[in-house]
Amino acid sequence: MGLLTLDTHIDIRWPEPPDPLAEGPMRVDFPKMARGGLGAAVFIAYVPQGRRDEAGHAAAAARAEAMLRHIRARADGEARRFCATPDELLACHEAGALAVLSAVENGYAMGHDLGAPARWRALGACYLTLTHDGHNDLSDSARPREPLGDAAEEHGGLSPLGRQAVAALNAAGMLVDVSHVSKAGMMQAADVSRSPVVATHTACRALCDHPRGIDDAQLDMLRAVGGLAQITAVPSFLRPTPEGGKNPASVEDMADHVDHAVRRIGIEHVGLSSDFDGGGGVEGWQNAAETAGLTAALEWRGYGPRELGLLWSGNFLRIWRRAQAIAG
């Protein structure tokens, strides 16, 4: 069995997603995955931050669940399988099929409904990203949005409801994704979660001081709780964008961030993702068909088969199993 390459964060277009069976305009579809050797992908039910009232929360919940059902329906037949557990993912890989997974981005979709994680888990979702851009009722965001009336911070990190949401995610067996969350909220979520937390699409602020990255203290916290930082292919997270110019970030910049995180917290706490179709794409890994470009850059840095296996999927599988064991 060869290397299992798992991309833990890929967006889809909504409400009219293209057919993934055909080569199309998106950075990820099934032909590109097959051609590039990307064996598994977590597709995202993303909900943009909106009005925090009953109608807004209801609409967000409906959108998230419709997207989860759509993602599950994309995987049909022997060539593509939907995977809701680590064992299903490994069996899919052994069978040579493409694996489709799902997750929810933005706890705004929960509203105040602490039963939502159990419903999402029943639909196959493996994690929830607590916030997106803009504060919600669960937590402060790393990027407040002035058009939504956000102050620099609202809750001082997690709200009391946010702490309850983390407990509900733990009980449902869903991972807690701390990408997009403010530093205070991220540290508090890591502290209160009974299962390891993950930043599914992030980068190292020590190398590029972007608010969506995580600093060394946050990396240290992830190691302390057995968690994971997934370095992602968003150019502006990896290197500063020149004034008025195009960001030249490449797989070499991704490898620099991987190197920094590995030196700081160890290979067991670092992984990889693209954020394709949500802003991701660097020279050498512009779409799923170029997945081998990132692997080659890491091999050139000296990462061998064991290390590549951990970075691409082994570490994520470990914490996902842990989350399910704690729920069980």
TrEMBL record:
What is the protein name for this chain?
Answer: Membrane dipeptidase
**Which terms under GO biological process does the entry name?**
proteolysis
Annotated region (Disordered) at 136-157
The coiled-coil regions, if any, are none
Question: Could you cite one Gene Ontology molecular function of this protein?
Answer: metallodipeptidase activity
Among Pfam families, the record links this protein to: Peptidase_M19
Recorded source organism is Siccirubricoccus deserti
Compositional bias (Basic and acidic residues): 136-156
Q: Which InterPro entries match?
A: Metal_Hydrolase, Pept_M19
Give the top-rank taxon of the lineage listed in the UniProt record for this protein.
Bacteria
